[in-house]
């Protein structure tokens, strides 16, 4: 018989592998909170920039359209003023393109000659004829309602004042030349101290009147240039566009 072992037999146990700690799976880059926040901020900034860019573009286009419309209205007003001014001046002088016109030069020459104690160089009848023409030209220009022509046409305060001052200077200058011619007529008929005094007054009035006409006409030319027109052409009163390109 087999002899039983006194002790209880023990089964052999297999050693277990060491237990591993759980490894955290990293969050994908684009799902990380800070990445999403930064991305949202960048997108928001880009959207704001686009809105500002579009808004500025629309405003610039609107301003450009308004400026073009105002310029077209200003050109219409200046064409009307040109049609009144230049034909009247051409009847008492010569238009010199981009330079002030030469207005009744015989009046200035006569006044200058008389002031020097010389012969006037023209007759009293010629001077009276010039005086009449100058008065007519001044009346024609003065009757043109420049205020109404430029009202509501987009001219700013400085432009309006310059245009109205230009008209006043030209009209005043023409009337001054008219009076200078009449003083010269009186000087031709006078003698002695009276003749010298009349001649001196005629010369001073002629000089100041010519300066007024030149200043006024230069302002007028600047206004024309501002709306792409030129003045003093060979065809008085016909507006001419400035060359472009």
What does it look like?
The chain has a domain at 76-241. It contains six helices and four strands. It has helices spanning 33-90, 105-115, 124-143, 146-150, 157-189, 192-226, and strands at 93-96, 99-103, 229-230, 240-241. A two-stranded antiparallel ribbon has the order 1-2. The chain has a two-stranded antiparallel ribbon with strand order 3-4. Mean pLDDT is 84; it is low at 234-245.
Short description:
The protein is mainly α and 245 residues long.
Question: Total number of β-strand segments?
Answer: 4
Strand order of the largest sheet: 1-2
Largest sheet entry: 2 strands, antiparallel
Structural class: mainly alpha
Along the chain, the helix and strand elements come as HEEHHHHHEE
Helical segment count: 6
Strand content: 5-15%
Q: Estimate the helix proportion, in percent.
A: 55-70%
Distance between the termini: 131 Å
Query: What is the general shape?
Result: rod-shaped
For the CA atoms, what is the radius of gyration?
A: 45 Å
Uncertain stretches of 5 or more adjacent residues: 234-245
Instruction: Name the average pLDDT.
Output: 84
Question: Helices and strands in order, then pairings?
Answer:
Blueprint: H1 33-90, E1 93-96, E2 99-103, H2 105-115, H3 124-143, H4 146-150, H5 157-189, H6 192-226, E3 229-230, E4 240-241
Antiparallel strand pairs: 1-2, 3-4
Helix pairs in contact: 1-3, 2-5, 2-6, 3-5, 5-6
